[in-house]
Design a protein that fits this description.
The complex is a heterodimer. By secondary structure, chain A is of the alpha/beta class. Chain A has a single domain, classed as P-loop containing nucleotide triphosphate hydrolases (Rossmann fold, 3-Layer(aba) Sandwich). Helices cover about 35% and strands about 30% of the residues of chain A. Chain A contains eight helices and twelve strands. In chain A, helix 3 runs parallel beside helix 5 and helix 5 runs parallel beside helix 6. The longest helix of chain A has 23 residues. Chain A is globular and about 50 Å long. The relative contact order of chain A is 0.17. In chain B, the strands form two sheets. Chain B has a ten-stranded mixed beta sheet with strand order 2-1-5-7-9-11-14-16-18-20, covered by helices on one side. In chain B, strands 3, 4, 6, 8, 10, 12, 13, 15, 17 and 19 form a ten-stranded mixed beta sheet that branches. In chain B, strand 1 and strand 2 form a beta hairpin. Helices cover about 20% and strands about 40% of the residues of chain B. By secondary structure, chain B is an alpha/beta fold. The longest helix of chain B is centred in the last third of the chain and has 18 residues. Classes of the chains: A alpha/beta, B alpha/beta. The interface between A and B is medium-sized, with 26 and 22 residues. Bound molecules: adenosine-5'-triphosphate and magnesium ion (MG). The site of magnesium ion has 4 residues of chain A, from helix 1.
């Protein structure tokens, strides 16, 4: 379980997140909405442990441990992983090597790459000249190899073409154990699968396309550095579309 | 040998002339007398053991000779092994070659003997060196290896090498320079003259493993004829007191190509002044100079100079430096276009490892140190097109081995 309590975060001397409370239980996937610059990426980076995002109040708990001041790699080892919005290029390091690193050296890189149509990119430097959509698939491939318990997705479907969006959507669903194309998987019922589900997800999206593939449990809106509502993700999306973020925050607050 | 009398006279005049660049070295303090070592046959070489073997292997020497077409091995001043297996390739010592009339067409024909005190010393104090020549139309499958080894404390090792790739031939050479594990102070002066004839292809990969108090002054010039390709790779990952070299390549025929790659990791207290210079003199000439330097508390000057003299030439210079643990990197890229229609560019960057890249790798589970070393290795991992696989492996191995020292 991920528990964030009354979190306040500063970046470059100014407060970018405040009074953040968030709880993601095992098996749950949340969707995070919010206008540009509202602090969504910042929240993910803070959970991952980027030191420039300074936690000045509150705490982050994961699997019962206070991880607020843990370095990035220790959080990764505890089972937190992230698919970045804009990852850096690593010159001279091949994607193949990177995926292998993610899997602790014990994964079938080719096999995983095939699942996201990425075998042709394995011998290229990580993110070097990758298109927007290719970056997303590269990030997903790395997460597949890492297979963390809590997955943070920063706009996984932005920049992805219509054909690949299904691939991305289904891959995320599989990662989060939310793939439900079939009534039963390995002879187990949907109900059983739900009970056995342990993976946690937090997905940032502007479009909500991802909701067509991943049955998210909750939606949240981040507005001006604050998490402003918790509700059904579809409802939030409709509301934002009809009346904008600001309206939506108040309206849903009132109804719930 | 009269032809050398005139050379010696010219050399005498510049006995004390400092080089145009780089710290001046007092060569008087070094000993130049011959140091005799017994000739070793193949079995002897294969039996070499311990730290000495390790040094040789690190410099790319394959002591089993399995993957090599021939071997030249000079220890201090003596040639201790010289043999070729590959058909169409000749390997001989320069002392032997100087007995033959044809050598006059090559010896000191590219490097001026009176350039500075080091070229002068190379003529006046010449110990030996190698001549490697591929016959016209031949293609060597395995690289030829040449090793210049320093064992005697305080010695000035002085060599002159000539490499000739005859028309339509393909020749690959790996050359290692190394010092024995106990050696601290010595000097190495090496002249190299490269002749790449019409449509020939020559790759020359040099791996240096020096000692902390070594002074190294190579002087090399290459001449590439029409359609020829000269690929020059340089790797130096070990300490050295002072290394200064500025190899020059002249593209003398249309469509001749030169590509120079260097990878240098500077240790604390070491000083490197290195670079490459290419003159593009004919239509269709191409040149690329790529340098990757890392300093760990050393001083590195990384030079590059491209001179475009005619239209329809293309040249690029890439110089990237990483400051890991103090020290300085001074990148000096120079482009000189003399006419309309040259296409020349450079990119130079000096900095530290981006924190963002370290964090990225850490978020995939690597510790900060592991992430740093992965990025550093990536930085040094230059793609060198056209380099045969065994030579790529040698470069990778040199980088792998030095990994510990870098961190
Ligand atoms: N180094 C910095 N110093 C100060 N403010 C910064 C710095 N970097 C980013 N910010 C600001 O922090 C705010 C939150 O940015 P963040 O990237 O978290 O937004 P976001 O919600 O992910 O936006 P988007 O939807 O555009 O991706 C923005 O206003 C941004 O400009
Ligand atoms: Mg963002």
């Amino acid at each position: 379980m991920l528990q964030i309590e009354d979190l306040k975060v500063e970046l470059g001397g100014s407060v970018i997140l405040e009074h953040i409370d968030l709880e993601i239980r095992p098996g749950e996937t949340h969707v995070l909405f919010g206008p540009n610059g509202s602090g969504k990426t910042s929240l993910l980076m803070t959970i991952m442990g980027y030191p420039q995002y300074r936690v000045v109040a509150g705490k982050i708990m994961f699997k019962g441990l206070d991880i607020t001041s843990l370095p990035i790699n220790e959080r990764a080892q505890l089972g937190i992983g992230i698919s970045y919005q804009r990852p850096p290029t690593i010159n001279g390091v091949k994607t193949r090597q990177m995926v292998s690193v993610c899997g602790g050296g014990a994964v079938d890189v080719e096999g995983l790459a095939r699942k996201v149509n990425f075998t042709g990119f394995l011998d290229r430097d990580v993110n070097a000249g990758f298109s927007g959509g290719e970056i997303k698939r590269s990030e997903l491939l790395q997460l597949m190899a890492q297979d963390p318990d809590l997955m943070l997705f920063d706009e996984p479907e932005s920049g992805v073409d219509l054909e690949n969006i299904a691939l991305v959507g289904k891959t995320i669903a599989r990662l989060l154990q939310k793939d439900q194309d079939e009534e039963t998987v390995n002879g187990r019922s949907k109900m059983r699968r739900k009970m056995e589900r342990t993976k946690m997800g937090l997905i940032i999206t502007h479009t909500g396309y991802i909701l067509d593939y991943v049955a998210a449990d909750k939606g949240q809106v981040l507005f001006k550095g604050r998490l402003s509502c918790v509700s059904n993700p579809r409802e939030i999306l409709t509301c934002i579309g009809e009346s904008g973020y600001e309206e939506c925050v108040t309206c849903i607050l009132e109804t719930s | 040998m009269h032809f050398r009398d005139e050379l010696k006279q010219r050399a005498e005049k510049v006995r004390d002339k400092a080089a145009a660049i780089g710290p001046d070295v007092d060569l008087e303090v070094f000993q130049k007398d011959p140091v005799d070592h017994a000739y070793l046959d193949e079995e002897d070489l294969a039996r070499l053991e311990g730290a000495e073997r390790e040094q040789l292997v690190m410099s790319g020497l394959d002591l089993s000779m399995k993957d090599r077409g021939g071997t030249f091995f000079q220890k201090d001043t003596s040639v201790i092994h010289c043999k070729t297996k590959a058909e169409g390739v000749e390997v001989l010592s320069i002392k032997q070659a100087l007995q033959k009339p044809w050598i006059q067409d090559y010896y000191w024909k590219l490097v001026p003997v009176d350039a500075d005190k080091y070229t002068a010393a190379a003529e006046l104090d010449l110990h030996d060196g190698y001549v490697i020549r591929s016959l016209p139309g031949t293609r060597s499958v395995y690289p030829i290896q040449a090793c210049l080894y320093l064992d005697r404390e305080g010695l000035q090792q002085t060599v002159h090498n000539i490499i000739i790739a005859e028309e339509d031939s393909e020749l690959h050479i790996i050359t290692g320079c190394a010092t024995s594990p106990h050696l601290k102070k010595a000097a190495h002066i090496g002249i190299s003259e490269f002749y790449v004839k019409k449509n020939a292809k020559l790759s020359f990969t040099m791996i240096h493993n020096w000692a902390e108090d070594m002074v190294v002054r190579p002087r090399s010039v290459a001449r590439v004829e029409e359609g020829g390709l000269f690929l020059n790779n340089y790797v130096c990952m070990k300490p050295v007191r002072s290394l200064q070299m500025y190899p020059t390549t002249h593209l003398e025929g249309p469509d001749a190509v030169a590509r120079l790659y260097s990878i240098i990791v500077g240790s604390p207290g070491s000083e490197y002044d290195v670079g490459g210079r290419v003159y593009l003199k004919n239509p269709g000439n191409r040149a690329e100079i790529v340098a990757r330097t890392i300093t760990n508390g050393s001083r590195i000057i990384a030079r590059g100079h491209l001179v475009g003299e005619v239209a329809d030439i293309k040249a690029h210079l890439e110089c990237r430096g990483l400051i890991l643990n103090g020290g300085t990197i001074h990148a000096i890229p120079e482009l000189e276009g003399h006419v309309d229609g040259v296409e020349m560019s450079h990119e130079a960057a000096v900095g530290k490892i981006a924190q963002e890249e370290i964090a990225y790798l850490m978020s995939r589970g690597l510790s900060e140190d592991e992430a740093t070393s992965t990025i550093v290795r990536g930085f040094l991992n230059v793609d060198i097109p056209g380099l045969p696989e065994p030579l790529k492996r040698e470069i990778d191995r040199a980088i792998e081995r030095s990994d510990k020292d870098v961190m």
